[in-house]
Amino acid sequence: MAARTPITLLKSQLNMDHDLDDTLLAHKLDAAEIWIGNYTGTPFVTGNAALTEAALQLASYWYEQREAASFGMTTAPVPFGVRDLLDSYREQVTGYVATA
After folding, report:
1. Structure pTM?
2. Which CATH number fits domain 7-89: 1.10.10, 1.10.3230, 1.25.10, 3.80.10?
3. CB atoms near residue 51 (< 10 Å)
4. Which residues lie below 8 Å from residue 31, measured CB to CB, with a gap of 6+?
5. Residue-level pLDDT at 38
């Protein structure tokens, strides 16, 4: 699946003005949109500012923090604010199943 968010928008988020990492950026955006779909329980929708912002923040973070572990500092798998942007889109599952 190709990312729906334009790479140019991610490059603006990163203040990047070269094309050297375009393939990597496209991969990070695609992974971010898939993660968002899995987190919310619904497919990523283009044109939604909150979802796009979450994808940009997540892809930027993953681009800048490429290691799974860092020594001497604490890192988070998801940057601050991404879950806050997405929680209102998340399908709430309580475990309750209605019986007929």
Report:
1. 0.82
2. 1.10.3230
3. 22
4. 59, 62
5. 92
